[in-house]
Amino acid sequence: MHVLSVSRISLGICLTAALFITQRPTVALVAHQSTVPTNPQSQCVPTAADAATAAAATMAVTSDATAIATAPAGTKHLYVVTTVAPITNIAFNIGGNRIILHGLIPEGVDSHTFEPKPSDSVYMAKADMIFVNGLHLEDPTLRLANATMRKDATLTELGASTISEKDWVFDFSFPKDKGDPNPHLWMNPFYALHYASIFRDMFSQADPVNAAYYVANYTAFEARILTLDQAICDAIFSIPANNRKLLTYHDSFAYFAPRYGIAVIGAIQPSDFAEPSGQDVANLINQLKAEKIPAIFGSEVFPSKVVDQIGQEAGVKYINTLADDDLPNQQDNRLHHSYIQLMVNDVSTMSTALGGSADALKAVDTANITGSDESLLAN
Ligand SMILES: [Zn+2]
């Protein structure tokens, strides 16, 4: 086994490097926003977005990636194992069906407490490449990988390859004294894009016959991310300034919030992922009354009667459809079973519930660059 140290260099350098080795001819089509920020935590600039123009630009970009439609003959398929569904989906958007992709953590399962089955070692043993988020999210899976992967396979921690420890965020459910940082890097679209660049580079290096395909997919994905970023920015800035506050059950917006000028004022889930204590609940109710925000948010993966109770007692709406690793469209319409659809749904939910508009998000094409991902169900 060898553990890849892709880079511990600062993200700015990583992203800059990615820009130089990537052809980006289509990005100029997006009228409002055309560059990947050097620091993904820097705040976005809202525009009076002309949704039609942005949508037209996105449509022009999407057709590009499928230009190289046919796999060269005799291609060996890389066997790639990933963990949570957003990471699996980003890998699919770069590798498509030129790789065999297995996502280990089932959707709808709490990824923070997930324990792989002993039988999952079968996938580890088959893998040419294993990717985890890291930042202490999937430690049991990482241990299984280390114990059962092939010596010639690679194991990559995407989070650690994207930011260094000094940029780790500790907050409500991930307090510093426990030592586990908030791991939800992918909820910032530019960190997700950096994950995509790692897939592009590693797939291309191991499978040069398909390198042009991986690079074209990345280029199209980058354009999609740029459109998504601007649309999120415009949707969040349509929320009245006093309401740009997030209180969620699960604490997954730590890397998203600074970029879009929305404050994470708390999270209900304690750091041991149990239910909050009576005292915690009382404090949250008082805080909500003081902050005067119209809604708080939960998710279907973490059903909690407590949040309902907090909402009722504080007199705020409770909406339980935010998600961070449970993608939309798992049964039907797998073309839109995507990380980008997840982000669009989350931001639509929060912007409308907090008194803004989700209109800007109509500019975003949420389809997978590489088509429907039904093949993943069989891998
Ligand atoms: Zn999470």
Could you explain the architecture of this structure?
The chain has eleven helices and nine strands. By secondary structure, the protein is an alpha/beta fold. It folds into two domains: 2-234 and 367-378, Rossmann fold, CATH 3.40.50.1980; 237-360, Nitrogenase molybdenum iron protein domain (Rossmann fold, 3-Layer(aba) Sandwich). It has a five-stranded parallel sheet, sandwiched between helices. The longest helix is centred in the middle third of the chain and has 27 residues, at 211-237. The protein is globular. The relative contact order is 0.16. Residues 1-33 and 49-67 have low confidence and may be disordered. Zinc ion binds at residues 111-112, 184, 250, 252, 324-325.
Provide the fold topology.
Layout (H helix, E strand, L loop, with lengths): L1 E2 L7 H10 L30 H12 L15 E5 L2 H11 L3 E5 L17 H6 L2 E4 L6 H10 L5 E4 L31 H18 L4 H27 L7 E4 L8 H4 L2 E5 L10 H14 L3 E3 L7 H10 L2 E3 L19 H15 L26
Parallel strand pairs: 1-5, 2-3, 2-4, 4-5, 6-7, 8-9
Helix pairs in contact: 2-7, 3-6, 6-7, 7-11, 9-10
The site of zinc ion has 7 residues, from loops.
